[in-house]
């Protein structure tokens, strides 16, 4: 059975709940099992990914970052993660409510594989997750 691992970095617990619930519904419609890692701050995510003892088997298939977080923001974290050799091949996406196109362009030029508007419905979230994880409809 195929397993996919998605990592979410977002300070909004409601958004993480929506993402988790969406993955559970998506899992019930496919033969894929999902694992979700969540970090509520960029600092916690950085601490995890920069740990020299990290098991490469624990790395996600993709990382989704919010931009607007207190302390270190998503763009700053993106730049730090892209400096880590063990994350070079892992897609990192910005999933945010930020509508500023300059910010989205900055994210792509800083190493994001794409930027997406944060969905506010379960169906929208499932569609986005399918796209990010490469799961056909």
Can you walk me through this structure?
The protein has 137 residues and is α/β, with parallel strands linked by helices. The protein has one domain: Response regulator (Rossmann fold, 3-Layer(aba) Sandwich), CATH 3.40.50. The protein has 5 helices and 5 strands; from the N terminus they run βαβαβαβαβα. The model has no long low-confidence stretch (mean pLDDT 92).
Q: What is the C-alpha radius of gyration, as a whole number of Å?
A: 14 Å
DSSP strand content: 15-25%
In the predicted model, the low-confidence regions spanning at least 5 consecutive residues are none
Q: Count of helices?
A: 5
Largest sheet: 5 strands, parallel
At the third CATH level, what is the topology name? Rossmann fold
Please write the CATH class name: Alpha Beta
CATH architectural designation: 3-Layer(aba) Sandwich
Q: What structural class is derived from the secondary structure elements? A: alpha/beta
Provide a quick synopsis of the model.
By secondary structure, the chain is an alpha/beta fold. The protein has helices at residues 13-28, 42-49, 74-81, 101-109, 122-133, and strands at 3-9, 33-39, 62-65, 92-96, 114-117.
Key features of this structure:
Rossmann fold, 137 residues, globular, alpha/beta, 5 helices, 5-stranded parallel β-sheet, 5 strands
